[in-house]
């Protein structure tokens, strides 16, 4: 576990500690969806004469689809990007879903907040219908209420939705997820299962970096204690140093 320094705590004065509401990103955080995404991107771009490899798609993991397509096919006009997005979303259920696998610890991580009286929510850049499909195929849908699942959001837009859901922490693999947590006033918990390493995630402002979700339940216990003792702010943001 790696953490960034933080300021000294200010104790709560209302006597009521919030329960943990933990937001999770989807792709490369809860599930390894890289093969299916690469397969679908290769098919879509191949139809318009752009040849890419799976390795070409990896640096774009966690980004919105329009930015991925624009990066892989530079110079493509905006209206063509829109058409490629539509084609991708049409093909993804048949080409991309079957290879999705939950990461070790994903189910336990999603279940962990409920053990402390809280809940988990999922906020993703993925197209919302495909978020639901991926959760179902990965065997994770039962851990999150449908109303607590949101897609088609990235970075600061995620943060707005996380704030609406009352998130006290947000777990993701991308610097954009760290920015989302900041907007929501939530603890930014990063995992290195995506294309960004510990140094990059800490530089982006992550409060804590985990090597995998298997470490999450242990970290959550410290978060819950922070909420109870006032070492976290009213929305869950960390105000005391995290253990190294």
TrEMBL record:
This is Haloacid dehalogenase-like hydrolase. It comes from Kineococcus endophyticus. PANTHER family: PHOSPHOGLYCOLATE PHOSPHATASE. It comes from the Bacteria.
């Amino acid at each position: 576990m790696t953490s960034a320094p933080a300021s000294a705590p200010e104790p709560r004065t209302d006597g009521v500690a919030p329960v943990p509401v933990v937001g999770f990103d989807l792709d490369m955080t809860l599930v390894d969806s890289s093969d299916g995404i690469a397969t679908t991107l290769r098919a879509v771009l191949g139809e318009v004469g752009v040849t890419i490899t799976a390795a070409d798609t990896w640096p774009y993991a966690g980004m919105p689809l329009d930015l991925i397509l624009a990066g892989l096919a530079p110079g493509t006009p905006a209206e063509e990007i829109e058409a490629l997005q539509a084609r991708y979303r049409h093909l993804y259920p048949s080409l991309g879903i079957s290879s999705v696998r939950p990461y070790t610890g994903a189910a336990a991580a999603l279940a962990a907040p409920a053990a402390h009286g809280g809940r988990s929510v999922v906020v993703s850049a993925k197209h919302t219908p495909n978020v639901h499909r991926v959760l179902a195929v990965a065997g994770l849908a039962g851990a999150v209420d449908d109303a607590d699942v949101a897609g088609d959001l990235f970075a600061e837009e995620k943060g707005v939705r996380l704030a609406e859901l009352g998130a006290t922490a947000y777990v993701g693999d991308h610097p954009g997820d760290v920015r989302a947590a900041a907007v929501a006033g939530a603890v930014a918990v990063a995992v290195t299962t995506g294309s960004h390493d510990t140094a990059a995630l800490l530089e982006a402002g992550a409060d804590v970096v985990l090597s995998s979700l298997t470490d999450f339940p242990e970290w959550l216990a410290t978060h819950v204690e922070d909420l109870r003792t006032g070492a976290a702010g009213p929305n869950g943001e960390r105000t005391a140093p995290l253990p190294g």
